[in-house]
Every structure is written in structure tokens, then in C-alpha cells.
Amino acid sequence: MKNKILKIAGYCLFFLCCLVFFLLQGFPVEMVGALLQNRARAAGFKLSYEEIDTLFPNGLEFDTLRLQHPRQEGGSYSLRLDSASARLSLLSLLGGHKSLSFQVDLLGGSLTGAFDTRQQGWHLQATLAGLRLDKIAFWKELLGQQLKGELGGEVELDWNPRQVKDGSGRIQLQLLGGKIGQGKIYGINLPWVDLGKTQLNLEIKKGKAEIKIFKVQSDDLEGGLDGYLLLQQLLANSSIHCRLRFKPAGELMEKIRKQIPPEFHAMLDRELNRARGSDGFYRYSIFGRIFSGRPTFRPLRQ
What we know:
- The protein is an alpha+beta fold and 302 residues long.
- It has 6 helices and 16 strands.
């Protein structure tokens, strides 16, 4: 009886070893990588990576991923991910959908969460922590200015790629130690502007991401943003339709004025006064595609 039990245990151990060997050596990781690249291409992006490997017992691990999107004027926007890992929930397969938990190291911080695929699309829940915006190289092409600070927050999305209006969710972000500047406005170099603590809350429904909260409060600037982002099936074609208001501190305006000769001060004041209200706030409309083009800024009549 004892020998029979040992024999059964031996067979079970041998089977388990064979299973582990298959998971580690026989899993079609390159096929999974190609599938992810096809999904990214369908969304208008290019995904590449240096290495992909299995992660015991039910996961994958990527090393040095790069996500790119072409610009209309040539070149591309690029985002590098130092490493990423994802684990498949085997129990979720019994329920008819696939559930992945993931962890990504990027921009000096981390992105963790879960991704579920369903019959009508997918669900994403993620937490961002300590993402350094100065490590993103395309801010100047996108905004005309450089951007600094550490980004954190939470994202929850239900998305159907075939029916954008069915999408829903929320995005809550906080930027700590934010700064913007080192670009040109009306031909004038903008010095670094302290953004302090910046808060952004978006609510997504019926194909729109409505801005519920966007506020900036610092010694240099007070400002806000209201409006919405119009989402598209190809996310890279999404557009912004917003109104921006901001009130710079007197010291900041003096720094700007010192960069131009005195004879041009009247011209600067005349241009800025097109957007300046009686309350001291400047107001602009922002509209246009975000990634496939560059948004347009226009002064609002006061």
C-alpha cells in the first residue's frame, strides 16, 4: 500500500514538472507579443519590445517596451516602458472572459491594475504613482511647452471599441510639483511657471470625457479648464473642446515683460487684452485633435 501511494505521488510530481516545463518553455510568447502589436496597430499605435518571456506560473514579462504614434508633420510621439508584467487569471476563463493583472515600471514610477476582456469590449482599472512627466519627450510638440511634475491617480474604464458611445468610466489625476514653461508664446519665451498641486477629474459617458474638475492653484498661477474631449474609435483621433481661464501673478508677468524691449510692451498688452476680462483672468478656447494634430488656442471675447 505504501509503495502504491509513493508511485502515485511520483506520477503526480512528474506530471507537475512536465506542466511547469511546458509553461516556461512551450508557451507561445511570441504569438502573444504579435497579438498585442496587432491590437496596438488597430488603435493607431506601434508597439515594440526588446524581450518577452514567461513569468511563472501564469504570466508574461516584457523588457523595454516602446509605444509610438506618428505625427502628421513627420516623426512620432514615443513612450518607453522600462518593464511590464502581466498575469492571466485562470479562474476567469471559466466565466467566459479573460482577466489580466499587470504591473508596469515607466517614467520613474509605476502603473498597476487589472484588465478584463468581455464580449462587449474590455474593462480597465489602474493606479498611477510617481510618474515623472519630464521623462516624456513630446510635450513641446504637443503643447508648445515643457512639463514637469509627478503624476498619480486612478483610472476606471469600460470600453467597447466598436461602439464608442457605450464607453463609460472615470479618470482622477493629481499632479504634484508641476511646472510648465520653456516654450514660446507670441514669440516670447515663457519662464517656468509653478503649477503647485493640479487636480483633474474626468467622467466618461456617451463618447465624451467631460471635465468635472480641473484646477491649478499656486503662487504663480490660478486657473481652470472646462469642456470635454470627444472620443473616437481610433483613440489617436480624439479631439478637445474646452475653455481655459488663468490669472498669472504680477511677478510672473514682470518676468515675461523683461524679456522684450520696452517699445513692444504696448503690442504685448494689446494682444493679451483680447483675452483678458475685468476680473484679471485670461480666457481662451481650445479645440482640435490631440495627437493627430495640434490643438488651436483662440482668445475668447470678454
